[in-house]
Amino acid sequence: MKEFQLIEHYFTGQSQHRKDVKLGIGDDCALVKPAENKVLAISTDTLVENVHFLPEMPPQILGYKALAVNLSDLAAMGAEPAWMTLALTMPTADEQWLQGFATGLFEAADYYMISLVGGDTTRGPKSITITVHGQVTEGKALTRSGAKPGDWIYVTGTLGDSALGLDILQGIRDVRSEHHDFLVNRHYHPTPRVLAGQALRGLASSAIDLSDGLLSDIQHILKASTVGAVIDVEKLPLSQAMSDSVTLETALNYALRGGEDYELLFTVPEAQRGALDTALSHAGVRFTQIGQIQAQNKCKFQYHGETFVPEHSGFEHFK
Q: What does the buried/exposed string (b/e) look like for 136-154 if buried means 16 or more CB atoms within 10 Å of the residue's CB?
């Protein structure tokens, strides 16, 4: 198939038909109409083969994950997903691969009610770039810059599972059969905490999604808010699969530096802690208090009150 035939066959007419899309795929630009009193939240992520995903990754899983990791950014802002664009680069027009990729992409799109409104296809080394657009009531978006001394630090879900799942796929780790699928699935199928992010509006003072690991990502909040923090390493939430598969020291290392968890890291003032249980119960997600914001401008890690020195920092593209 030629470029426009590929677009029409695999990507046109398969996404949510939202009423706020006035003109979608097929013209030079899409036309969308944001809701009244809403501002746009926009995020772009690129996934490159051999950097962000393995060549043997099933295309349906890759399609799902490519959108899910972008939606995690919207979740961290408390935004409602609305529209997306897709730029897809491939060395050849592999129709079997495209069918699987499109199936996974629209599985996520349909679940989160997001419309594909445009994009591009080109020849080259395989990479996927998705730009997502969300909406949030003006003045209600979560940001990285609102944390204050005394605020409590929380994370959703459990940490490190995705990194361990990747190590299993690469043959670096071997785990018991009853834990294999759970850990691999945590790498393949991250759950963007969209509902949790929306529930935190008006409660959380700051938020970020955990894409590069706790060690790296918490620094973004601390820098933007010009504060410090104390992290109680013994409180980091670990899955049963993680605890059963590696030593405690290794598990904590995964939890601190492992990337691609796509959980939310957020801070909450003391006055809002009582409302947190109610707010997040409707999102159906576990959350754990792991530390506290301090005025001193650095991040300290402690294990049962003693200084803890992490082995490595989180993931960085350019070092």
A: bbeeebbbbebbeeebbbb
- For residue 14 the two structure tokens come to 């398969």
User: Does any domain span residue 318?
Assistant: no
d(CA 263, CA 157): 6
Per residue in 127-147, pLDDT (tens digit) is 999 999 999 999 999 999 999
Q: Which helix (H) or strand (E) holds 278?
A: helix 273-281
> Which letter does DSSP use for residue 114 in this model?
-
Whether residue 128 lies inside any domain: the answer is yes
DSSP codes joined into one string, 27-47: BSS-EE-PPTTEEEEEEEEEE
Query: What CATH number does the domain containing 257 carry?
Result: 3.90.650.10
pTM, entire model = 0.91
Bridge partners, 25 (sequence order): 27
- Among 129, 108, 118, 103, smallest CA distance to 21 is for 118
